[in-house]
Amino acid sequence: MKLFTGNANIALVQEIADYLGVHIGDARVKRFMDGEINVNIDESVRGVDVYVVQPTCPNVDENLMELLVMIDAFRRASAARINAVIPYYGYARQDRKTRARDPITAKLIANLIVTAGADRVVTVDLHAGQIQGFFDIPVDHLPGVPTIAEYLKSQGLGRDTVILSPDVGGVTRARNLAERLGASIAIVDKRRPEPNVSEVMNVIGDVCNRTIVIIDDIIDTAGTITTAAQVMHERGCKEVYACCTHPVFSGPAFERLARAPLKEIVITNTIPVPEKKRLPNMVILSVAPLIGEAILRIHEDLSVSRLFD
Question: At 271, is the secondary structure helix, strand, or coil?
Answer without folding.
Answer: coil
